[in-house]
């Protein structure tokens, strides 16, 4: 299959293909999504097939406005309007109880709820509106690879397997949306996946917000089936470096003694300090969690393609956006927070 490139002027063609049951990758402000008609079970199954992932994971349904959601949900919880008015379009996914017999279990993962999101990308909002159907959109990567934040990442993983890619340059945020469950019995919204919309931002709008425990306790069984997969992992092992210059020094010295070739993902200051000591570097520029998050997946992908044995990646404090950044980085590091002393044993 030839994978066609579409630009913002060719959205009609891309929409037509979606309506025919084809898969089209689309840009969002978070990561590129793999789009298919959410009401077409065969198309949704195909999404899993091309990603190479089992289909027991509920998917986010992407809409072009809140009106679209109303067809699939009977009753909205009290905070819905405020959340939608404040954060849509944007990186906030909302989970509602869904009308029976609307979406197939391939979309819902067999749950009685469905996740909806209105992405903040003009081309994709046009794509959905013209197709006039909601789209599933898991990240447009091969299962196990970091999520794609550029059209090139999507080509790398899915060329020849999907009908097309709607291109719109690199994404702005770099990690997937915050997932907020509005269906808890006590009415308190629950964060199931941290993203760029932080707990604090949500609390300013709706008052109390809970964080699902599995996000803090890694041993606990996952609530959403999707949580059990090892996501975002490059093939090269990743170690999180949580500390100052000395910690980087120790880690680099240890790797050298072990004859390991080193890749470094860090800010410009750290990268310039150690560029002569390591084999490959990826700098995310100034020391900012926004920049680190925006370039995390691109950095991991880039280093993963180099001839190295280990990636050392810089930690950020787990507050605000740092929670989402560290959540993805820990997954890339296979859930191991590096206790820096442990590697010298
Ligand atoms: O930023 C994003 O959200 C990206 C872009 C492309 O929009 N999309 C994305 O979609 O990450 P997806 O379908 O891969 O997200 C699925 C995750 C599941 O792993 C699960 O955590 C949560 O969303 N989810 C979806 N439906 C759910 C439900 N009914 N109950 C609980 N969690 C659900
Ligand atoms: Mg994904």
Automatic annotation (TrEMBL):
<dbReference type="GO" id="GO:0005524">
    <property type="term" value="F:ATP binding"/>
</dbReference>
<dbReference type="InterPro" id="IPR038385">
    <property type="entry name" value="Sua5/YwlC_C"/>
</dbReference>
<dbReference type="InterPro" id="IPR017945">
    <property type="entry name" value="DHBP_synth_RibB-like_a/b_dom"/>
</dbReference>
<feature type="binding site">
    <location>
        <position position="193"/>
    </location>
    <ligand>
        <name>ATP</name>
    </ligand>
</feature>
<feature type="binding site">
    <location>
        <position position="57"/>
    </location>
    <ligand>
        <name>ATP</name>
    </ligand>
</feature>
<dbReference type="InterPro" id="IPR006070">
    <property type="entry name" value="Sua5-like_dom"/>
</dbReference>
<keyword id="KW-0067">ATP-binding</keyword>
<dbReference type="InterPro" id="IPR010923">
    <property type="entry name" value="T(6)A37_SUA5"/>
</dbReference>
<feature type="binding site">
    <location>
        <position position="139"/>
    </location>
    <ligand>
        <name>ATP</name>
    </ligand>
</feature>
<dbReference type="Pfam" id="PF03481">
    <property type="entry name" value="Sua5_C"/>
</dbReference>
<dbReference type="GO" id="GO:0061710">
    <property type="term" value="F:L-threonylcarbamoyladenylate synthase"/>
</dbReference>
<feature type="binding site">
    <location>
        <position position="147"/>
    </location>
    <ligand>
        <name>ATP</name>
    </ligand>
</feature>
<protein>
    <recommendedName>
        <fullName>Threonylcarbamoyl-AMP synthase</fullName>
        <ecNumber>2.7.7.87</ecNumber>
    </recommendedName>
</protein>
<dbReference type="InterPro" id="IPR005145">
    <property type="entry name" value="Sua5_C"/>
</dbReference>
<keyword id="KW-0819">tRNA processing</keyword>
<keyword id="KW-0548">Nucleotidyltransferase</keyword>
<comment type="function">
    <text>Required for the formation of a threonylcarbamoyl group on adenosine at position 37 (t(6)A37) in tRNAs that read codons beginning with adenine.</text>
</comment>
<feature type="binding site">
    <location>
        <position position="53"/>
    </location>
    <ligand>
        <name>ATP</name>
    </ligand>
</feature>
<feature type="domain" description="YrdC-like">
    <location>
        <begin position="8"/>
        <end position="197"/>
    </location>
</feature>
<dbReference type="Pfam" id="PF01300">
    <property type="entry name" value="Sua5_yciO_yrdC"/>
</dbReference>
<feature type="binding site">
    <location>
        <position position="62"/>
    </location>
    <ligand>
        <name>L-threonine</name>
    </ligand>
</feature>
<comment type="similarity">
    <text>Belongs to the SUA5 family.</text>
</comment>
<keyword id="KW-0963">Cytoplasm</keyword>
<feature type="binding site">
    <location>
        <position position="232"/>
    </location>
    <ligand>
        <name>ATP</name>
    </ligand>
</feature>
<dbReference type="InterPro" id="IPR050156">
    <property type="entry name" value="TC-AMP_synthase_SUA5"/>
</dbReference>
<feature type="binding site">
    <location>
        <position position="177"/>
    </location>
    <ligand>
        <name>L-threonine</name>
    </ligand>
</feature>
<feature type="binding site">
    <location>
        <position position="117"/>
    </location>
    <ligand>
        <name>L-threonine</name>
    </ligand>
</feature>
<dbReference type="GO" id="GO:0005737">
    <property type="term" value="C:cytoplasm"/>
</dbReference>
<dbReference type="GO" id="GO:0000049">
    <property type="term" value="F:tRNA binding"/>
</dbReference>
<dbReference type="GO" id="GO:0003725">
    <property type="term" value="F:double-stranded RNA binding"/>
</dbReference>
<feature type="binding site">
    <location>
        <position position="113"/>
    </location>
    <ligand>
        <name>ATP</name>
    </ligand>
</feature>
<feature type="binding site">
    <location>
        <position position="30"/>
    </location>
    <ligand>
        <name>L-threonine</name>
    </ligand>
</feature>
<keyword id="KW-0808">Transferase</keyword>
<dbReference type="GO" id="GO:0006450">
    <property type="term" value="P:regulation of translational fidelity"/>
</dbReference>
<dbReference type="GO" id="GO:0008033">
    <property type="term" value="P:tRNA processing"/>
</dbReference>
<keyword id="KW-0547">Nucleotide-binding</keyword>
């Amino acid at each position: 299959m030839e994978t066609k490139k579409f630009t913002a002027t060719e959205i009609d063609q891309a929409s037509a293909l979606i309506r025919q049951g084809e898969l089209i990758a689309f840009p969002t402000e978070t990561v590129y999504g793999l789009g298919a008609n959410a009401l077409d079970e065969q198309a949704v199954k195909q999404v899993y097939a091309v990603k190479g992932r089992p289909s027991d994971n509920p998917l986010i349904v992407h809409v072009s406005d809140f009106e679209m959601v109303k067809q699939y949900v009977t009753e909205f919880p009290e905070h819905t309007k405020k959340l939608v008015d404040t954060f849509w379009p944007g990186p906030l996914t909302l989970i509602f109880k869904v009308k029976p017999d609307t979406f197939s279990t391939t979309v819902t993962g067999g749950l009685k709820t469905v996740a909806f999101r209105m992405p903040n990308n003009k081309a994709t909002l046009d794509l959905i509106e013209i197709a006039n159907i909601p789209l599933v959109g898991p990240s447009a990567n091969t299962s196990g690879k970091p999520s794609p934040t550029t059209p090139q990442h999507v080509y790398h993983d899915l060329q020849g397997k999907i009908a097309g890619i709607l291109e719109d340059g690199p994404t702005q945020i770099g990690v997937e949306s915050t997932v907020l469950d509005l269906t808890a019995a006590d009415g308190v919204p629950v964060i199931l996946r941290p993203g760029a919309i932080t707990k604090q931002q949500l609390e300013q709008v709706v008052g109390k917000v809970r964080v699902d425990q599995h996000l803090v306790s890694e041993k606990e069984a996952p609530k959403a089936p999707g949580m059990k997969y090892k996501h975002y992992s490059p093939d090269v092992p990743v170690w999180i470096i949580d500390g100052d210059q000395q910690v980087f020094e120790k880690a680099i010295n240890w790797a050298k003694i072990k004859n390991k070739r080193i890749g470094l993902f860090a800010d410009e200051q750290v990268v310039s300090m150690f560029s002569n000591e390591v084999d490959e570097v990826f700098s995310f520029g100034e020391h900012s969690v926004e920049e680190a998050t925006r370039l995390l997946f691109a950095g991991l992908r880039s280093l993963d393609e180099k001839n190295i044995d280990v990636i050392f990646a810089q930690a950020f404090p787990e507050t605000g956006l740092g929670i989402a950044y560290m959540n993805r980085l820990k997954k890339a590091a296979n859930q191991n927070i590096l206790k820096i002393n442990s590697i010298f044993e």
